[in-house]
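call fold(seq) -> tokens
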Amino acid sequence: MTDSGTEGSFDLVLKGGRVIDERNGVDAVLDVAVSNGRIAALAKELPAGGAAVRDVSGTIVAPGLIDIHAHVYHKATSLSVDPDIVARRSAITTLVDAGSAGAGNYDGFRDYVMARSPHRILAFLNISFPGIFGFDKGLFIGEATLKEMLPVDRCVAKIEANRDRIVGVKVRIGGPATGDLGLGALELALEAAEATGLPLMTHIGGPPPSYAEVVSKLRPGDILTHCYRPEPNSAIGPDGRVLAEVLAARERGVLFDIAHGMGAFGYETAEAALKSGFPPDLISSDVHVISIEGPGYDLLHTMSKLLNCGLPLPDVIGMSTSRPALAMRRPDLGHLGLGAVADISVLSQVDSNFVFEDVVGVTREGTTLLEPVACYAGGEEMELAPRPFEEPYIVSCAHAHVDH
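ret:
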């Protein structure tokens, strides 16, 4: 594929990588050309002309990675981390904050974090007016325990004034996050999402309410995040099978997101779900002040963890690029079609005996890791950062074979 208007006038050509673009059905060794910040061509042996050329043979060339669940309202909320550090070490082009800010403090997030970052930052706005204000090491104060803290009209008004960056509504449901209000918080969040025509992302924590009660209220296109959380309150019933309510939710179009974090990925749940034919729709990190130190670390590490659980590489890439873009209704992102913004993540798949750990201490030795090679945002090369927690476990590069 070549844009006839730009042929021969490329700015950059990435040569010989395995291009995986789920949206456009591409999985092949191709060259990718960029012109004026957009994808200009995908073909074998593209003529570079005067373009900058980078040999990426043996690597995976993917649409820019999207972390649809992160916490990056840095220095203004106690749980949030520096978005640029996280993006650089994971070759991420788009970070989506999952409710760190509410209507009461979103403007600061927009003006002092989003506007100053070289990376694209979007947000789910918390139905709670102050956002997530009481989350830190050794501290957990629920932001959705009082109806008075969840003014639907203020949430709706803030979204209407900021539709360029706000992609949905967020609520945390379960345990101390909602306290006695329970499902009442979910109902208010759904009211705001319905009024704005946007998806709702709901956190599922410990009971009450139950996983089944929460997921049963979600609409097509809503996102259940922390889908593989361990017991208590997992997606797996006493019979070892996926709950009927969870299967019914998927059938009607509810999306299921990993969001590893510090408490939301259990091998027992994940392995039972995958064995039952219930993969996630989305892979995200839930990176925050605690999980950034492990066992979740970040999006790229979470992708590696799911790859080692047996998910095929093309699916892992799709769950971290095209599918999150479509879930937040940004079809302009997450693909490498002609004319698309040139957000590109170049990754290497390496042999590794890294011992992965879930949030309750269960371990599995892996065989492979995904590592960053290069990252381009709008065609501009972005700085990368090292991954010291993985480096000692890298054995060798694994060739990026093309599946036929």
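The CA atoms of residues 152 and 214 lie 19 Å apart.
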